[in-house]
Design a protein that fits this description.
Blueprint (H helix, E strand, L loop, with lengths): L7 E10 L2 E10 L2 E7 L2 E8 L4 H11 L9 E7 L9 E6 L6 H12 L5 H9 L14 H13 L2 H6 L3 E6 L5 E7 L2 H14 L9 E4 L5 H9 L4 E4 L5 H10 L2 E7 L2 E6 L29
Parallel strand pairs: 3-6, 9-10, 10-11
Antiparallel strand pairs: 1-2, 3-4, 5-6, 7-8, 7-9, 11-12
Helix pairs in contact: 1-6, 6-7, 7-8
């Protein structure tokens, strides 16, 4: 997979290794601000890795509840500065979308500042009337274990920089459908959901999503907005993410590494009903520990 234009920047470095010093050229994951506007009015600014900016904006509009379908996006364009500099602004024209821009700006600030409590956060998601998740969708555990390797092999920018997160969609057979990278986990998720929205593929009721890093509250609510029934991460979820997943019926998986994973919610989608369970023992640093059988 080829890295998007402007997603990588080159720099000179000095490397020390085992007493030897050398200079070399290294690749860095690019980070630049992206301003999202609606009808010319500024809505929010996010730090992102350039590339797939229209998808990022579209995904943001959906996952933040500003639009519910691609039909509400009348236009989406990157604005080029008059001085010929790089474009870091996307403007959206909406139709049949009722929202309070000032209230949204306040909410974005509060969320980024940890200024809202967990209960208020979950209440805000509940009142949006999100589509019920597909309870019939199933995913084989053996297939699930193959997803991290597929995610890693598709990370073109990470392979050069080692500094990006990724989000990927897979079908029930474990085939990679779409993958996007970004310096922010939530941006990577918005990009891949925006890809689906602009392609009229929402809801993603027959897909599983895998994200690098941890599965936080923001990632869970974005998966719910897109109708994704299974969300997996290679690291741990947060307590609020688990509460939200359990309340709204999302299958939430963490620590998906090698041939092991931990299910925090919705195990019925990836385990047979007759699966035997072994008591879980406490482990240091909050990491679950499963005793060996026999």
């Amino acid at each position: 997979m080829r890295a998007p234009e402007r997603s990588v920047e080159l720099t000179r470095i000095t490397e020390w290794e085992d007493g030897r010093v050398r200079t070399a050229q290294d690749s860095l994951a690019a980070e630049e601000p992206l301003e999202i506007r609606i009808g010319g009015a500024p809505l929010t600014v996010t730090m992102r890795t350039p590339g797939h900016d229209l998808e990022l904006a579209a995904g943001f509009l959906l996952t933040e509840g500003i639009v519910e379908s691609a039909g509400q996006i009348a236009g989406l364009r990157a604005l080029a500065p008059e001085n010929g500099a790089r474009s870091n602004v996307v403007d959206a024209d909406l139709k049949d979308a009722a929202f309070d821009a000032q209230a949204l700006q306040r909410n974005f600030y509060a969320a980024s500042s940890c200024g809202i409590c967990g209960k208020a956060s979950i209440d805000a998601i509940r009142v949006r009337g999100l589509r019920p998740l597909d309870r019939a969708f199933r995913f084989d555990p053996e297939t699930l274990c193959r997803l991290p390797a597929a995610l890693k092999s598709g990370q073109a920018v990470f392979s050069r920089t080692g500094g990006l997160h990724a989000a990927a969609l897979f079908d029930a057979a474990g085939e990679l459908i779409a993958l996007r990278e970004d310096i922010g986990r939530h941006n990577a998720v918005d990009k891949v959901i925006g890809w689906a929205l602009l392609g009229d593929r929402i809801p993603l009721s027959q897909c599983a999503m895998l994200v690098s890093g941890r599965g936080g509250f923001e990632i869970v609510q974005k998966a719910l907005a897109a109708g994704i029934p299974i969300l997996a991460s290679v690291s741990a979820p947060s307590s609020l993410a688990v509460k939200l997943a359990r309340e709204l019926g999302l299958t939430l998986i963490g620590f998906l590494r090698g041939r092991r994973f931990v299910i925090y919610s919705g195990e019925f989608r990836c385990l047979p009903e007759e699966s035997a369970q072994v008591p879980i023992l406490s482990a240091p640093h909050g990491r679950p520990s499963f005793p060996r059988r026999g």
